[in-house]
Design goal:
heterodimer, A: 110 residues, mainly beta, five-stranded mixed β-sheet, 9 strands, 0% helix, globular, B: mainly beta, seven-stranded mixed β-sheet, 45% strand
């Protein structure tokens, strides 16, 4: 998987929106942006993915810039249980396994 | 919540023992995966399967083997455990055309003494 750039850590107050940025300037036209998170000692959890349109599901929203070189994951009302490492990856055809970088360690403060 | 299960959750075993880590999913997914992850480290794909009787090695070389006799079951076996096999083993599955929406089990934390 090609590289993405994410801040190593972020804090957010409980109840506020958490906005997690990701740069993926080398993404190509047929590659999707995926977000996963991993809570300590648990398996990764799929959150959301998108190609070029903004996406929303019950967990989060994904905002992708028009040039597709960056995106932002939004957790609208963060709770303590959202404390985790969040991974942004982009993937296209051919690859099977997921390879995560360092991700962003999001800490929700009470 | 995804319906993918792994047993045991924790296993401490002596060197040289044969072990099988179980993974089952009830979602009818064709694709299944085994990953290895050390604490605080990156995820590494060690095996995957596209369906029954299909198994492939992943990016990280592993001494383990897998089988896929039934769609829902993807066990991983170590014939002779060694301390270097100590790690967390995560099983995942995916359905549909895009294989990157993967659902993970809780993992098995293996310690070989």
């Amino acid at each position: 998987d090609a590289k993405t750039t994410q801040p190593p850590s972020m804090d957010c107050a409980e109840g506020r929106a958490a906005n997690l940025p990701c740069n993926h300037s080398t993404i190509s036209g047929n590659e999707y942006v995926y977000w996963y998170r991993q809570i300590h000692s648990q398996g990764p959890q799929y959150i959301i993915h998108g190609l070029k349109n903004n996406e929303t599901n019950e967990m989060a929203s994904l905002i992708i810039t028009e040039d597709r070189k960056s995106s932002t994951l939004i957790l609208p009302h963060a709770t303590l249980r959202d404390t985790a490492v969040y991974y942004c990856i982009f993937l296209g055809g051919g690859a099977d396994g997921l390879t995560f970088g360092k991700g962003t360690h999001l800490i929700i403060q009470p | 919540e995804a319906d993918i299960y792994q047993t045991p959750r924790y296993l401490v075993i002596g060197t040289g023992k044969k072990i099988t880590l179980e993974c089952s999913q009830t979602m009818g997914h064709d694709k299944m995966y085994w990953y290895q992850q050390d604490p605080g480290m990156e995820l590494h794909l060690i095996h995957y399967s596209y369906g029954v009787n299909s198994t492939e090695k992943g990016d990280l070389s592993s001494e383990s083997t897998v089988s896929r006799i039934r769609t829902e079951h993807f066990p991983l076996t170590l014939e002779s455990a060694r301390p270097s096999h100590t790690s967390q083993y995560l099983c995942a599955s995916s359905g549909g055309t895009l294989s990157y929406e993967q659902y993970f089990g809780p993992g098995t934390r293996l310690t070989v003494t």
